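Service request form, structural biology core

Requester: graduate student, group of Dr. S.
Request type: structure prediction, single chain
Budget code: on file
Notes: please return the result as structure tokens.

Sequence provided:
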Amino acid sequence: MKDSRAIPRLVAWLIIILGMLACRAGFLEDVIYNIDEAEYAVAADALDHGWLPGVDLLGSTKPPGIAVLFNLLFHIFGRSMAVIHVAHVILMIGAGILLVELAIALWSATAAVPAALLFWMVLNSFNLPHEIIALNVESPGILLILGAFLLVWAPSRSRWRILLGGILAGAAILFRQSLGAFLLPLIFLVGKDSNRPLRGIVVLLAGVCLPWLPVFVVYAQAGALAWTWDSWVRYPITYSSDTGILGFLDALYLNLTDFATQATIPLAAAIGGGIVVWRSPKDRGRSFLFWMTLASVLALFSGSRFFGHYWIQIYPVLALLGVPAWFTLWRGTRIYRLLLVGAIAIGGLVATLHFPTWRLWDHYAPPRGVAFFHLGKESLEIKTAEFVRANTEPDETIVVWGYCPQIYYHADRLPGVRDYLCQYITGYSPGSFDPFSQRAPRSCGHIRAEEMFVEDLERRRPKYVFDLVQVYDYTFPFIKYSIRSYPMLADYMRRRYLPEGRIGDVLVYRRRTPADTWWPSQEDVK
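Core staff response, request fulfilled:
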């Protein structure tokens, strides 16, 4: 009996491991695939200087879990994006293995291979590498959630297993707030089978709180608890609402259409399996899949923009829902079996080729070694960083006027302002408007944003300010955000900084020294 279970499990594990390596081994480069990776890397560097994400760095909507993960990886394996991408592959292999174990727990060992294949397919069939292969908050979060499900699902679970499941769920929320939606299926599992459901739920929620306790202690000691609310609750809600209802529906339609045409097989399997589950007798597994589906949809929808990496939150339930459809086809007539084999072949071929052939089917794909979100054709983020390293000391700060944290990362210098993404002062909100033709729907992200920006310039005294207002060849242009549009900031720049030339289209300003005797005019500050 053990052998009959071990073989499907082993095959499923190999599908996950070898499939992930085949699809992603070619992307283990020291390249920033997604601008979010640069945000997290800068926050990771800031931790080494005692800075707190969400307090000393503002604009990122995520709790500090991802910054801590990047910081640990940099310290253990070296400060390189290749390290980050290797870690991401390992995380996704781990998530796949946990999903296989959950499928076995839900049905039997016969579910191992279908779950593995469907998860591998959906994970490697959709969107672009800069969204899915980049290490973002959803990947470690979903790994932790799957671990929590396994702990709480076990029939022999004790209060300690429930507590540990809660701890894993709480740790997941430290990466992304929307993962809190998965408390719904966890609460269902605990409340459904426990002799004392209320006590079990209290233990679960106590576990959820435990990972947050040291975080709040650290922030409380810094007198920064108010900023945790602003950075992790108020601002993310504001950010999500920027799209409006029409923008939300438009983003959903466009991305769902892409998803349906790229991940057709696993999506069709999930829909078919969902129908099978719905028609089946009501039991614990059926109810769990319902709550897991609801939680996955809520987590996906919460960001309102439907960026590619958001969809990782829904991949596990799609793979699980596809298993009953697989069983139904395999147990059917010969035609149904042939249909299943054909679907597996097509889905497997798409997953195998989708990412490895990226540069063949996407004419926007950059050459190897070049970041997807490069600053101009000359990769000005690299040239600017080289200038910074050559003209500043490691303990000096700089400011990038624009949404380009890549410069901070490549320069290995900390930001000279808290608003290092320039989104509090400008209201810049990626994915909610066309930055080439209009300004963001709101004027700022905080009522004191401009005042805080100037305060930070005076306090941190960054040596250089790099202005991206004239850079047009970039995914996140700042062409509508001249410094002149901000009177307090423009006045400070004229009094404290001098034009120092340009690096391509990047304007360079240097902080005044006592040796400087001339004063810039209003036209000198762009």
